[in-house]
Design a protein that fits this description.
alpha/beta; TIM Barrel; 2 domains; three-stranded antiparallel sheet
Length: 378
């Protein structure tokens, strides 16, 4: 890899929405950006050319899953994650913390790290901040995430405070564990925690800034809290983070969540919804979500979204997608995933243009007006 990681803030809309550019050794990412999730070194039902054609400039892969199978050492021997999965653009790797901590009955947290049993074969494993960083370096990711504890919702404030403080100590250890002190061009992001408590969020942000990271993520959201609570946290939390670094909201979300978060100053997103929901028959459109399983589409020759230029909408009608889903044909998963990822990337491009033109608030109103009264067929 050549070059270093940097973030360029190009413009800030009066609403607080930001237009930026993330520079990595493997390419430039225009922000706001959505990262398709390639959990196990693949975006399900897609090949890398499919993904690139949607407009995606960066992917997310998951440390936990690759740590277990095929193993980071194996990936390293095969030339690293980019060569392994044939994706030549930037890759961000989640540290694995969220997956480990979701295995509540299979793990034990200590100051040193987390001991857990593999969900694949029950074998005993251990993940520390140092190991998490080393695994991500072996995978050859472009953006590494610190190991953190993602607390559940709801949780008592005392637990949230202890968890947040532990994540800060782990953050410092992750930075210290960088193989060459961070001179390899890769970036390391810290993760803000603190649940729904404003004071804890502020303390987390302050601690991370004192340690110093290339970018900052907002963790601990979209974990079951009511939508108004997530909106409340987003109304202040991004502004607690440095203006000259990218801000990444982890695991969010629905199209309306992305629009809300961009308006709060968030730059980067990831979520499994466009791919997972496609496999369950749900398509995102400019007028809301539709579900191809419903009988009303059985003889509908029209595209899922008449305004969409994706290959699925250009070539195939809803009746065919309905048939593929009912017949359990794999092609249905592929075509619907192509559409959903195109929709998400088109949404991000539209928001980038709106921010650059100082019309994000008008865009937000138009976005919601178009969806108003359109029942989602879930």
């Amino acid at each position: 890899m050549n070059g270093r990681f940097s973030f360029e803030l190009l413009h800030e809309d009066p609403s607080g929405a930001r237009r930026g550019r993330v520079h990595t050794p493997r390419g430039v990412v225009e922000t706001p950006a959505f990262m398709p999730v390639g959990t196990a070194a693949t975006v399900k039902a897609m090949d890398p050319d499919d993904v690139r054609a949607t407009g995606a400039g960066i992917l997310l892969a998951n440390t936990y899953h690759l740590f277990l199978r095929p193993g980071h050492e194996t990936v390293a021997r095969l030339g690293g994650l980019h060569r392994f999965m044939q994706w030549d653009g930037p890759i961000l790797t989640d540290s694995g913390g969220y997956q480990v901590f979701s295995l509540a009955s299979l793990r034990k947290i200590s100051e040193e790290g987390v001991a857990f049993r593999s969900h694949l074969d029950g074998s005993s494993r251990f993940l520390s901040p140092e190991i998490a960083v080393r695994v991500q370096e072996k995978l050859d990711a472009d953006i590494l995430m610190q190991l953190d504890e993602c607390p559940p919702y709801p949780a008592e404030r005392d637990y949230l405070a202890r968890s947040m403080e532990l994540s800060l100590r782990w953050a410092a250890r992750c930075k210290a564990a960088r193989f060459d002190g961070g001179e390899d061009g890769r970036a390391l992001f810290g993760i803000m925690q603190g649940g729904m408590d404003r004071d804890l969020r502020q303390a987390s942000a302050q601690g991370l800034i004192e340690i110093g990271f290339d970018g900052y993520a907002l963790g601990g959201l979209s974990v079951g809290e009511p939508k108004p609570l997530m909106a409340e946290v987003l109304s202040y939390a991004p502004a607690l983070l440095p203006k000259d670094r990218p801000r990444y909201l982890m695991g969010v979300g629905k199209p309306e969540d992305l629009v809300m978060a961009v308006g709060c100053g968030v730059d980067m997103f990831d979520c499994v919804l466009p791919t997972r929901n496609a496999r369950n028959g749900q398509l995102f459109t400019r007028r809301g979500a539709i579900n191809v399983k419903t009988a009303r589409f059985r003889e509908d020759p029209g595209p899922a979204d008449p305004e969409c230029g994706c290959p699925t909408c250009r070539r195939f009608g809803l009746a065919y997608l309905h048939h593929l889903f009912r017949a359990r044909e794999i092609l249905g998963h592929r075509l619907m995933t192509i559409h959903n990822l195109h929709y998400y990337q088109d949404l991000m491009a539209d928001m980038r243009a709106a921010v650059a033109a100082d019309r994000f608030e008008a865009f937000r109103q138009e976005f919601h007006a178009r969806r108003a009264g359109e029942a989602a067929c879930l």
